[in-house]
């Protein structure tokens, strides 16, 4: 059995704590197609940084904590669901994107697309390299 360094041991402890707290449980999708087990890059850099207690697991790839999604964990799933619910019941005006969202992206507010991984851009037209 290979010996683990202190930093990798702490990383696995943090991963276990994150999983117990629901980072990948509760019906949320694995980030950017990553499924456990996967390898963390201890020198990974996420710029902009991961938000809402997200973990930078590879360059420009965040593992979001439960309840958050997006490339930098910037979207609160509960707020998004409330917006969709309110919209469906006539409380908010229609979200209109003058240019359509591409590659499975969703129009979440006027002229604002929420893109599915690995796409980005104002219309989800750009494919990001994951490695």
From TrEMBL:
MF-aspect GO terms: signaling receptor binding
SUPFAM superfamilies: EGF/Laminin (SSF57196)
Regions crossing the membrane: none
PANTHER family reported for this sequence: EGF-LIKE-DOMAIN, MULTIPLE 7, EGF-LIKE-DOMAIN, MULTIPLE 7, 8
Organism: Bagarius yarrelli (Goonch)
Source organism superkingdom: Eukaryota
Protein name: Sushi, von Willebrand factor type A, EGF and pentraxin domain-containing protein 1
UniProt-listed InterPro entries: Dev_Signal_Modulators, EGF
GO cellular component: cell surface; extracellular region
Disulphide bridges: 46-56, 64-73, 97-107, 115-124
Keywords: Disulfide bond, EGF-like domain, Signal
SMART domains linked: EGF (SM00181)
Lineage: Eukaryota, Metazoa, Chordata, Craniata, Vertebrata
Signal peptide: 1-26
Domain EGF-like: 42-74, 93-125
Protein's UniProt keywords contain rRNA-binding: no
């Amino acid at each position: 059995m290979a010996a683990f360094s202190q930093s990798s041991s702490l990383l696995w402890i943090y991963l276990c704590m994150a999983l117990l707290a629901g980072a990948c449980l509760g019906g949320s999708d694995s980030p950017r197609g990553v499924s456990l087990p996967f390898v963390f890059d201890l020198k990974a850099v996420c710029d902009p940084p991961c938000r809402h207690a997200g973990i930078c697991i590879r360059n420009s790839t965040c593992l979001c904590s439960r309840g958050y999604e997006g490339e930098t964990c910037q979207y609160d799933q509960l707020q998004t669901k409330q917006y969709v619910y309110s919209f469906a019941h006539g409380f908010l005006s229609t979200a209109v994107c003058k240019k359509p969202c591409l590659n499975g992206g969703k129009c979440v507010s006027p002229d604002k697309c929420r893109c599915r991984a690995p796409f980005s851009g104002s219309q989800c037209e750009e494919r990001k390299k994951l490695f």
